[in-house]
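#struct-pred

JT: dropping the chains for the assembly here, can someone run the whole complex?
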Amino acid sequence: MRIGYIQMNPIFGAVKENLAHVKLLMEGAQAELWVLPELFSTGYQFRTGEEAAGLAEPIPNGPTVRSLLEIAGQRGCWIVAGLVEIGPDGRLYNAAVLVGPDGIVTRYRKAHLFYKEKLWFATGNEPFPVVDAGPARVGMMLCFDHLFPEAARTLALAGADVIAHPANLVIPEYGQLTMRVRAIENGVFTVTANRIGTENRDSETLRFTGESQIVSPTGEVIAKAPRDQEEVQVVEVDPAKARDKSLNQYNDRFTDRRPELYRI
Amino acid sequence: MRIGYIQMNPIFGAVKENLAHVKLLMEGAQAELWVLPELFSTGYQFRTGEEAAGLAEPIPNGPTVRSLLEIAGQRGCWIVAGLVEIGPDGRLYNAAVLVGPDGIVTRYRKAHLFYKEKLWFATGNEPFPVVDAGPARVGMMLCFDHLFPEAARTLALAGADVIAHPANLVIPEYGQLTMRVRAIENGVFTVTANRIGTENRDSETLRFTGESQIVSPTGEVIAKAPRDQEEVQVVEVDPAKARDKSLNQYNDRFTDRRPELYRI
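RK: done, full complex below.
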């Protein structure tokens, strides 16, 4: 199975341009599963809740998801990507969708909000989703979820072979390091699609750290993007490799667990 | 508070010599909390359960713990170290003790056994311990526990400022990488005391990976030993820094957790 990330530099507020740019970037490569950054169609640094609401869309009937569905249908692929969702009750979520050639597959609302996201977004309250996408079972988490080992663990225990991780990482090194460990400790593939560039819309400069990466269940960094350039990268992986949790003939990442001793 | 590790190359079966060597290594430095490797007084690679039993000792009335108590009393320090314990029922455990100037403080029996340890040792069934050692609250885990994020998480949630991690690591890079992430995700200090050298006692060569390390709550590697040489290293840290779990004004490693969404 070919899985890939798109590392890009979204233009704040320019949904149409960002969607067109993604379409263009995808044309140079073929993948069955694509992962795009968090909030890839809108940019990240909102100044007010009203500004975020103005760029929010319902799922699936908004411009971003409709465009992703069109691409997935045309290219026969699955796409995980982040966007601002407005729920039926008017609440905003930092969300992700997984769309496939036959339509929308599932949605995720970020469970661990980072920094000023807490000012605009409601916290996700639904289970971390794991769904089929072609030959892989794909789990979704977003950016800062990486710091909480329970997020990736929950996805892996629910059967994820591949953890799709759209991100807008700003703390140097953290997300890249933790996601490598998430792959090792859970025996899964991880695909982190991070963005690059800077935003300075409320007098604070955010510098996004790039270095999108794909990690194997043994912790090998199979693909890694530069810090400051857009990059499209696709690798061939066998998702079934994530189903064998053994480390050696005596140890298994899952059956060796001791939940009775763990504090939650 | 001064905390340190002793990275050493134990001689298999030579308990007296290993204890004397540790005493000598400590003489060059002063620390309030020392961490020694797993099974530092016996060596690691047993060939049979009988051989392990022959090197096992009760806690606290065995040569290793008595010697550690003597050192702790003389030097006015706390020491975490690994040994083979024989329980009152004759079972063997891969264990660790924390001893202080006033006597033995607590014991830990390894909860996640690695590889052929499963042939000799019973699995620990007691909670991961966190106890006071001078100004720090110290948690204990052993070697392979590093792969299970729940171990360090449980210690941190129970109040550990410093995670003492005696080890006999053999998989290159894994333990050093995961323990750095354990420090970051829990906002604690971690002290991994690993051993060096090789053992080949049952036709399989085990190569221990060294690179003992001390990591700060932000993930900075404050001290790191070489791969293949003995090293004594002590650093000054403020354990209270591990009690502030905030990452910024909006995020806190503990209060941001979403246990209701986590699978255990």
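JT: nice. The longest strand of chain A covers residues 78-86. The mean pLDDT of chain A is 97.
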